[in-house]
Amino acid sequence: MLNSPFFYQHMLQIQDTLISLDLFDRQFCCNLAQCRGLCCVEGDSGAPVELNEVAEMENALPHIWENLSNEAKEIIKEQGVVYADEEGELVTSIVNGKDCVFTCYDKKGICYCAIEKAWHAGKISFIKPISCHLYPIRVKKFAEFTAVNYQEWNICSGARLYGQQLGLPVYQFLKEPLVRKFGQEWYVELSEAAKMLKEEMDVRS
Fold it and tell me: Can you give the pTM of this predicted structure?
């Protein structure tokens, strides 16, 4: 039996998570031809990594090494696949203060994740860090709850426009990683809550 979700002004509670209603209100669908994979390049630090993911990334190295840049290989040799950022959290190692060490490029200059590329080729079972898989959703764990928020970034303007054209809300676009992170039952509850919100909005209109 599903638990009844609790709605707040801008948040929804399901189990021990507090979820921004932006996941329902905003539309999103990645458009690599437009953004060229800049989310793996731009930023002040690497992508957040969970402790149990470090070994998965290290195990992937033999399968992706040839696709990495020489600079990335040197960084990995010197400091490993992750480092602690200013807040003390583990993030992927980066090259020249921006590129994730796992980036690789095609002939058109579009950036891809070397780990995900190996996963698609059936070489490894780990697709990529969950924070990357969930983007533009950001997850932050607190003592009593986990916050699930939508992060808007200017480099994703094309993804927002494409999502609007498709009528694809964030939570539907990211179904696979949300299920991976929180489980199928949690996602079913999320979808039911989305239906309740839509019905409420239809009544008001």
Answer: 0.88
